[in-house]
Each structure stands twice: as structure tokens, then as C-alpha cells.
Amino acid sequence: MSNLDPHPAPSPCGAAHHTGPVRELQEGREVPLGESTVVRRLLPTLGRRMIGAWCFVDHYGPDDITDAPGMRVPPHPHIGLQTVSWLHEGEVVHRDSVGSSATIRPRQLGLMTSGRAIAHSEESPRPHRHAPVLHGAQLWVALPDQHRHTAPHFEFHEELPRVAGGGGLDATVILGTLDGATSPGTTYSPLVGADLTLAGGTDARLPLEEQFEYAVLTIAGESEVDGVRLTPGSLLYLGQGRAELPVRADHDASVLLLGGLPFEERLLLWWNFIGRTQEEIAQARADWTTGDRFGTVTGYAGPPLAAPPLPSTPLKPRGRVR
User: Fold this and answer.
1) What binding details are noted for the cofactor (predicted)?
2) Which of 39, 223, 267, 279, CA to CA, is 20 to 30 A from 129?
3) Which helix (H) or strand (E) holds 202?
């Protein structure tokens, strides 16, 4: 997934640090993505820039793409992060510069580790060959310093572990471990991502790690999380210090649970790069512009994205505490 803003602002990847439970509700802002997709961006925002190592969250759809091209994101670069593709409806074709090609479908995990450098494209199958509805989320995970120069690679997991929480709750573990079930996806810091399906009449409690900070993104339907009523496209930040999370739903609903140990490193997020210094970001931009380092994505019918200009003001990494 790419940030297609032609004038991306640098984002210090940190936020006010809470050591106890909180309830911060925020709505996403609409951002165009590719030729015909509009996403709701929930992270980063001015008030909340990270949840554990999770540093970027887009929610899109459900969109009727019966007579539309659907997702079209040309080849673009990444450093210092992992991308997570997660669908509820539709299909997305992933291609990257290390030769990976996969069609990702609902509840399948497409996990790309950029490491030192990778490029990829994402698109719906060609018109009249794709599903009529596109609905899902794209997320980024920041890589800690000791792993951010690792070799780039892509993982595709068709089967993921599930947790039947009782009371109408069913969870698919996307990354990390939840209630004893561990995803096969590779992680580089303590975190968790899970898709929670809430049947109508759900009244359940989900076990959590008290050291983790958490947030919940509403994907579909209305639910109640820790007493807060949620509608689709909203993000509820929950803080730390919770041993369990009460969830309720009068009708069928679905939410994403994101969490992890607070990420204490000082990071700099600009465009599709996560680095530590302005020099590192500038070098990555220059390498993409000159065709060095990132390799070539084959199979996408169109040119790669051009890198936007760097801002005139200095880029400064910051930590979680403002």
C-alpha cells in the first residue's frame, strides 16, 4: 500500500504516552488511493501516531466495483516497515521486486517485509474478472532498528489460527499471539493483530496482555467495546493496563484489534519510508528516482509512482512522548 499524497508531511511516529486504560475515539479522514479507491486513514493522526509497532492504518470500502477498475496502486518503494494486506471482500493482486506474485482473498494474510528496500504494486484483478465488492484494510508495522535492514521478502498465508472466545466472539489471529493462538506471520517486535467477528447478541470478554497498548478499528456493523459504541471506520484507542476487553454487538459486526508493546524508538515516517534521519530518507528517495536499490516490479500495466519532493523544512524523528 502506498501513500499517494503528492505533498506528504513528515510524521514523527510517537504520541502521548498513557500507562493506563483510556478511551480515545477518532474518525478517519478520507484520502484518495490510486485511480478509483478512497480510504479512511486512521493512523497516523495528530493525536495518535502509533499503537505498539503499528504505524499506518487505512480502511476502505465496502465499495461496489462491478463496473470499475477497483484498486490500482502502481509500483512504489518501501523501507523500514512491513505491510499487511487484509480483506473482508474482494481480491488484491500483489507483485513485488523480489519476484513474489499472489492474489490475496478475504481472511488471507499478505505480509511484505521491506527491510532495506523493496517495491511492490497492488491491484484488483482486471475488470469483469474481479469480485463486485472491495472491502478491507491496509496496515504498516515499523521495524525495530536491529531488523530494519533485513533482506526484503513476502509471505502469503492462506490459513490462520482462530480463537473461539465464547459468547458469540470468533477471532482470526493475523499477527502475533492472542489467547494462546499464534499466527504464522513473521513479527519483529511484540505485537498482535486480530480480526474479531461478533455475531448478533455477542457479549464476551477477550483476554489481553496488560503491558500492551491496544486499539480497535471498526470494519463492519456496530459494536460496543469497553462501553463505547463504535460505527464503521472509527478507531478506539484503549491504552495499556487491561487484562481483558469486554465486547458486545446487537447485530453482526467485525472489528480489528491492534496492539503491542509501546514502540520506544525515535522514528521518521515520510511518504512510503520509515527511517531515522533526514539523510536516510533523502537517500531512499534518490535511489527510487534513479532506479537503484529497490529493484523492478513486473506485471503491472503502467509506470511506477514518482517520488514527491522533500519538504523544505528539516525532517526530525521523534519518540512516542511529545
Assistant:
1) Binds 1 Fe cation per subunit.
2) 39
3) strand 202-207
